[in-house]
Every structure is written in C-alpha cells, then in structure tokens.
Amino acid sequence: DSVSAASVSSPSVATAWWYKAPKIYSWYPDPVCNTTGANMDLYGDDFDGFGSQLFFDGTEQTLLYGSTTWLEFQSPAGSKGQHTLKVTNPRQNSKLPDFKGWSDSIQIDYSNSACGGGW
Questions:
Q1: Mean of the per-residue pLDDT values for the chain?
Q2: Which one, of 69, 15, 21, lies nearest residue 43 by Cα?
Q3: CB-based contacts of 98, cutoff 8 Å, min separation 6
Q4: Are 55 and 73 in contact (CB under 8 A)?
Q5: Could you write out the three-class secondary structure of 49-101?
Q6: Tens of pLDDT, residues 38-72
Q7: Looking at the DSSP assignment, which residues form a beta bridge with residue 101?
Q8: pTM (global) more than 0.85
Q9: Are the C-beta atoms of residues 103 and 21 closer than 8 Å to each other?
Q10: Sign of the C-alpha dihedral, residues 9, 12, 100, 98?
Q11: Which of 6, 45, 73, 118 is most enclosed, with most CB atoms within 10 A?
Q12: pLDDT at residue 117, as a whole number
C-alpha cells in the first residue's frame, strides 16, 4: 500500500495520501497463551474505532471495543511462535480502485509460558 512521491501530484492520490494511517505502539498481554488465546488490547493512534479492521495472520477478527487509541479483541488459540496482527483503516477512492486504506502491523509472540499454572 505504498505511494511513490512522484505519484502524489495526482489529485486522487493526494487525497488518499492524507487519509490517516493507524499506528500500533503497544499491546497486552505479551506473550499470549498459545493454547487459549487472550483478550488482547492494542494501543496506538489514529485507529478508526469500530471502523478499523483487525487481522490475525490474515484472518479478520471481531472487535470487542474500538476507539481512536485502543482496540480490543479475543485472539484465537494458535501455534507457538510469532503471529502477525494487522490493523487497517479501510478507505475507498473511485480514482484509485486498488487503494484499500492504510495499515500497520506488529508481530506478537505466542508461548506456553503465558498460559499460567493451576493452583
């Protein structure tokens, strides 16, 4: 979803250029229990709240809460290791049919060590 500097001279591209891009700064919990997933919080700026789209390894997730600085969702169980979370602020511009909006993504760690123990 990148736009070259030379193409910004087009009015339609210039319009897309000014759409706000989401920025993820931090998340909780870290790491995530791989056997159960977790109720996850993402913190950042310029989210579209409930209008944002959130993807876990490419699969869209349902938002439980959304604001311009905080998104919450239930992450699924998954294999141990790194997984990709991507937040997209969807946008459309009829003059740029391939433009779908700006995104930011992070790698999160899934681990057995986050699953805790029984008491």
A1: 85
A2: 69
A3: none
A4: no
A5: HHHCEEEECCEEECEEEECCCEEEEEECCCCCEEEEEEEEEECCCCCCCCCCE
A6: 999 999 999 999 999 999 999 999 999 999 999 99
A7: 90
A8: no
A9: yes
A10: negative
A11: 73
A12: 59
